[in-house]
TrEMBL record:
<feature type="domain" description="MBG">
    <location>
        <begin position="536"/>
        <end position="599"/>
    </location>
</feature>
<feature type="domain" description="MBG">
    <location>
        <begin position="459"/>
        <end position="526"/>
    </location>
</feature>
<dbReference type="Pfam" id="PF18676">
    <property type="entry name" value="MBG_2"/>
</dbReference>
<feature type="domain" description="MBG">
    <location>
        <begin position="388"/>
        <end position="455"/>
    </location>
</feature>
<dbReference type="Pfam" id="PF18887">
    <property type="entry name" value="MBG_3"/>
</dbReference>
<feature type="domain" description="MBG">
    <location>
        <begin position="32"/>
        <end position="100"/>
    </location>
</feature>
<feature type="domain" description="MBG">
    <location>
        <begin position="175"/>
        <end position="242"/>
    </location>
</feature>
<feature type="domain" description="MBG">
    <location>
        <begin position="319"/>
        <end position="383"/>
    </location>
</feature>
<dbReference type="Pfam" id="PF13585">
    <property type="entry name" value="CHU_C"/>
</dbReference>
<dbReference type="InterPro" id="IPR026341">
    <property type="entry name" value="T9SS_type_B"/>
</dbReference>
<protein>
    <submittedName>
        <fullName>Gliding motility-associated C-terminal domain-containing protein</fullName>
    </submittedName>
</protein>
<dbReference type="InterPro" id="IPR043772">
    <property type="entry name" value="MBG_3"/>
</dbReference>
<dbReference type="InterPro" id="IPR041286">
    <property type="entry name" value="MBG_2"/>
</dbReference>
<feature type="domain" description="MBG">
    <location>
        <begin position="245"/>
        <end position="312"/>
    </location>
</feature>
Length: 883
């Protein structure tokens, strides 16, 4: 530590002297102490390090991070401290190394194949913190493989063990091959094993097919890569067949004058035949027929059945009720259908004229048929009145009576009467027309009779404008009011400047109210104010009052309505300054026609004139293309005099040679009028430097349309027009660079994009082009455009169904060129018999009516059109004509 020491020197003859100094003891350094790295094999217990050497008296050691159990390394810190020593910090590495795994084995294993996966496992107890993983440790099929068991743990060295996993073949069980016997049916017979084959096995047969009657031994051999081969044998036997599924049924026929016979039902087995006896009859009656079926490979079968002929019935004839509308003529009924040969019909009670109903009888008889008696009702109904209409009608009120009438011709013997059929005033009523007659159904018709209000015509109401003069203004209608009508106005008075809508309403009891509107406007009167001429002052003096005269006031108004005052341009240097309207106002009812004047600041009188020694430099920057008429040229220039004064003078610039379409910097001279008191002996001129900026590149390009419908016979089709967005110029060159994207299919002429290619580009609908725009100074803008080529679907195409291949140059060939833009097109033409006459996959190819170098005959053919790209198919008839 440190402390202050005081030394006091004294003596009788001296003044005491007091001195001070610091006494400091500094810490000693700890030596002869080491802290070494140490390593331990993992055993599951915590390990730590200790320093080596003897600690000085009064010191102690403390450790940090000085305990480790698991494999790894860490830095331990030993700190030695004491009051009289500098602290000593030492570090060393504490390391735990992996232990070796013991007491675990991995043995070979063998299993008989059973279709399930087999695997091996280690034996022994794994140390805490270790685990085992296997590689190639799964096998199902017969064979041997090496399995690896890897035992790992964070605190142990990895242990790798290997063993063989073996699968041996299995025996096949549960399969039998039994003797089999089949009745002969003309087809080959075979035996089959019974039972379920193990997975992965198959069966092969030998001598396992027999058709004819007899017996043979069949062998079945079952093999599989995971099983022992199994051989089984059995006898295959074929026995004679019996004829089955043949029937011979009794059958009855209605007499029709032709001979009848019976036939067996069913399909005879191959190699058999049938013979009949007593199997023919025409007349009514019954007889037994015998059918005998024989065949070398079948038992003979004898069948019998009865053949019967019965009397015929009359059919195909009907007798239906009929109803007739009364027309004064007798009506009758008749059967429909064809009578069988040898039959006839007779009617009873079959005539009626008057309204009513009666039953008619038709009797059909014949020697070979049962008598047929039919009845039907003959009815006469009243007639309807037709061809008459009764329509609503509307009349505009005119003070006279209005009525309605029917339209059409009344049938003879009928008449019409009306009810409620008269109206004069506005309104609506239903009129009834009743038409009656003895032989007709009464017809009642209704219609609406309507009187509508009249429209007022010939009246106009026009807008009108008046110049403000201090008096009220109003509007009036033009034209003559109909009798009984009046007009009323609203908002029809206005004095001050402004506008309001006036409404004129014309009304009357028999007329539709008419509302007309017009604008009543009062516009500002013009007040002319003229500044007095010759207003001036000498430089340095105060401005005089700016005086003027005013004229054009409305009656009763004068200068008292004016407010504010005129003002001149700012500036106090010698020169002229324009006098403007300034803050001068007149109110809402006037507009000012202001005539200004020049205010001049004069130079003070001097003995000798001042000399012009120069001009203040002036410059102007403009956009490319700005015409001379739009230049914002300075109207004054500043003169520098020999007296050091700056004087503003009006200037006019000579812009000879100005070129707005050329970027760059150019200088131009100005002309001034020198006032009194100034001289210009050196004839100096003011200069103006004008900078024309470089032209900017075009901003964008717009295409008016980006799709078109492809026409098969047009290889030059307009698509859309390009518009170049360039605010500075309208002169540009448009081009499609060669070899870029799909530019080869297109062309640009006069700013219009065209499809310009005879190529099919089949299957494509979307194209991309790159358009290049170059302006007159060489700026280039390029932009991609997506173009869609639309195609007519097959189902919408009108396909020609006729052609005339006669060599006259007109309609000599047939094809479907509209499909040239599709992919996967197949066009076929077939003869009616099915032979293909023409085929192409190129829609540009047409058929000329020739097949195999021969002209095909006139006639009808079938075309089939397929579009692979869309999956569409269309069929139709094609007529080949001679001309």
């Amino acid at each position: 530590g440190s402390q202050e020491v005081t030394a006091t020197i004294t003596g009788d003859n001296y003044t005491s002297l007091v001195l001070t100094a610091d006494l400091e003891v500094t810490p000693a350094t700890v030596t002869d102490i080491t802290f070494a790295d140490d390593s331990f094999v993992y055993d599951g217990t915590a390990k730590s390090l200790v320093i080596a050497g003897t600690l000085p008296e009064g010191t102690s050691v403390s450790y940090s991070n000085n305990s480790r159990t698991d494999v790894g390394s860490q830095e331990v810190t030993a700190t030695i401290t004491g009051d009289n020593y500098t602290s000593l910090v030492l570090t060393a590495d504490l390391t735990i190394t992996p232990a070796t795994i013991t007491g675990v084995t991995f043995e070979n294993g063998s299993f008989v194949f059973d279709g399930t996966e087999k695997s091996l496992a280690i034996t022994g107890i794994l140390s805490d913190g270790t685990s085992v993983s296997y590689a190639s440790n799964s096998r199902t099929n017969v064979g041997t493989q090496e399995v690896t068991a890897t035992i790992t743990g964070s605190n142990y060295n990895t242990l790798v063990l290997t063993a063989d996993l073996t699968i041996t073949p299995a025996d096949i069980t549960g399969i039998t091959l039994e003797d089999g016997s089949f009745v002969y049916d003309g087809t080959a017979k075979a035996l089959a094993i019974s039972g379920t084959l193990p997975d992965g096995t198959s069966v092969a047969y030998s001598d396992n097919s027999r058709t004819d009657v007899g017996s043979q031994e069949v062998t079945a051999t079952i093999t599989g890569s995971n099983h022992t081969t199994l051989v089984l044998t059995a006898d295959l036997t074929i026995t004679p067949a019996t004829v089955t599924d043949i029937t011979f049924e009794d059958e009855s026929f209605v007499y029709d004058g032709t001979a009848k016979s019976l036939v067996i039902a069913g399909i005879l087995p191959e190699g058999t035949s049938v013979s009949y006896s007593n199997n023919f009859r025409t007349d009514v009656g019954t007889q037994e027929v015998t059918a005998t079926i024989t065949g070398s490979n079948y038992n003979t079968q004898v069948l019998t059945a009865d053949l019967t002929i019965t009397p015929a019935e009359v059919d195909g004839v009907i007798f239906e009720d009929a109803s007739f509308v009364f027309d004064g003529i007798a009506k009758s009924l008749a059967i429909t259908g064809t009578l069988p040969d040898g039959t006839s019909v007779a009617y009873t009670n079959n005539s009626r004229t008057d309204v009513g109903t009666q039953q008619v009888t038709a009797t059909i008889t014949g020697s070979n048929y049962n008598t047929l008696e039919l009845t039907a009702d003959l009815t006469i109904t009243p007639a309807d009145i037709t061809g008459i209409s009764f329509d609503d009608a509307s009349f505009v009120f005119d003070g006279t009576v209005k009525t309605l009438v029917i339209i059409g011709t009344l049938p003879e013997g009928t008449s019409v009467s009306y009810a409620n059929n008269s109206r004069t005033d506005v309104g609506s009523q239903e009129v009834t027309a009743t038409i009656t007659g003895d032989n007709y159904t009464t017809l009642v018709l209704t219609a609406d009779l309507t009187i509508t209000p009249a429209t007022i015509r010939g009246i106009t109401f026009e807008d009108e404008s008046f110049v403000y003069d201090g008096t009220a203004k109003s509007l009036a209608i033009s034209g003559t009011l109909p009798e009984g009508t009046t007009v009323n106005y609203t908002d029809n008075s206005w004095t001050d400047v402004g506008r309001q809508e006036v409404t004129a309403t014309i009304s009357g009891a028999n007329y539709t109210t008419l509302a007309l509107t017009a604008d009543l406007s009062v516009t500002q009167a013009t007040l002319k104010i003229m500044m007095d001429e010759g207003l001036n002052k000498v430089v340095g003096e105060a401005d005089p009052e700016l005086t003027y005269t005013a004229a054009g006031f409305a009656m009763g108004e004068d200068e008292g309505i004016l407010g504010g005052s005129p003002e001149r341009e700012s500036g106090e240097e010698v020169g002229t300054y324009a006098i403007g309207i300034g803050s001068l106002t007149t109110g809402d009812n006037y507009t000012i026609d202001f005539v200004g004047a020049e205010f001049e600041i004069l130079m003070a009188e001097v003995d000798e004139p001042d000399t012009i020694t120069g001009f203040v430099a002036q410059s102007l920057e403009v956009l490319w293309g700005t015409p001379e008429t739009e230049l914002n040229l300075p109207v004054e220039t500043v003169v520098i005099t020999s007296a050091g004064e700056f004087v503003n003078l009006a200037v006019e610039w000579d812009l000879m040679g100005y070129e707005p379409l050329e970027a760059g910097i150019s200088s131009y001279f100005g002309v001034i009028e020198i006032p009194s008191g100034l001289i210009n002996p050196d004839e100096l001129q003011p200069t103006l430097e004008i900078t024309v900026f470089a032209k900017p590149a075009p901003e964008d390009i717009i295409l008016s349309a980006n799709s078109f419908v492809a026409a098969p016979d047009q290889f030059f089709q307009e698509i859309g027009a390009f518009t170049v967005i360039d605010p500075t110029d309208n002169v540009h060159t448009l081009s499609l660079p060669d070899g870029v994207q799909d530019n080869g299919y297109f062309e640009v002429l006069d700013g219009i994009l065209f499809w310009s290619s005879g190529e099919q580009a089949e299957g494509r609908t979307d194209f991309t082009i790159l358009l290049r725009v170059t302006d007159r100074v060489g700026n280039v803008l390029e932009k991609d455009f997506q173009i869609t080529r639309e195609r007519t679907p097959l189902e919408q195409l009108e396909i020609a169904n006729t052609f005339t291949p006669n060599g006259d140059g007109i309609n000599d060939t047939w094809g479907v060129p509209a499909l040239r833009y599709y992919s996967g097109v197949r066009i076929s033409v077939f003869a009616v018999g099915g032979d293909r006459m023409f085929y192409t996959e190129d829609a540009d190819v047409r058929w000329d009516g020739v097949f195999n170098s021969k002209e095909m005959p006139v006639g009808a053919y079938l075309y089939v059109i397929e579009v692979g790209e869309t999956g569409e198919v269309k069929r139709g008839m094609l007529n080949l004509l001679s001309k």
